[in-house]
């Protein structure tokens, strides 16, 4: 990425990337590249920020919904596919400082979680 002149990184929500999250976070830090991730786990591991659905909450809610419907006789193929409607913004201020970035106060007040 550095050879190609990248100035920032968006890490896609891919299971392979999730499994390598610490390595990706470390590489972004080493290259001084701001990065946005799909999960808060990556921000807790040292990434700059994430903006995505809370996957733990979404999975738990969906599982309860689908299990309830199936146990009451619904056919899985007839159940609707749900899309996330609530997203959370997580910002790591320690990482921002290490990258020399100032996060605007307006963004910090909108964040669901700020890691200091």
Write the layout of secondary structure elements.
Elements: E1 9-10, H1 15-19, H2 21-30, E2 35-37, H3 40-44, E3 49-52, H4 55-71, E4 88-92, H5 93-98, H6 105-110, E5 113-115
Parallel strand pairs: 1-2, 2-3, 4-5
Antiparallel strand pairs: 3-4
Textual characterization of the structure:
By secondary structure, this protein is α/β, with parallel strands linked by helices. It has a domain at 9-53 and 86-115: Response regulator (Rossmann fold), CATH 3.40.50. The chain contains six helices and five strands; from the N terminus they run E-H-H-E-H-E-H-E-H-H-E. The chain has helices spanning 15-19, 21-30, 40-44, 55-71, 93-98, 105-110; strands at residues 9-10, 35-37, 49-52, 88-92, 113-115. It has a five-stranded mixed beta sheet with strand order 1-2-3-4-5. Helix 3 (40-44) links the parallel strand 2 and strand 3 (49-52).
Q: What is the CATH topology classification name of one domain?
A: Rossmann fold
What is the terminal separation in angstroms?
Answer: 27 Å
Strand numbers in spatial order across the main sheet: 1-2-3-4-5
Which structural class best describes the helix and strand composition?
alpha/beta
CATH architecture of one domain: 3-Layer(aba) Sandwich
Short structural summary:
By secondary structure, this protein is of the alpha/beta class. Helices cover 42% and strands 15% of the residues.
List keywords for this structure.
116 residues; alpha/beta; Rossmann fold; 5 strands; 42% helix
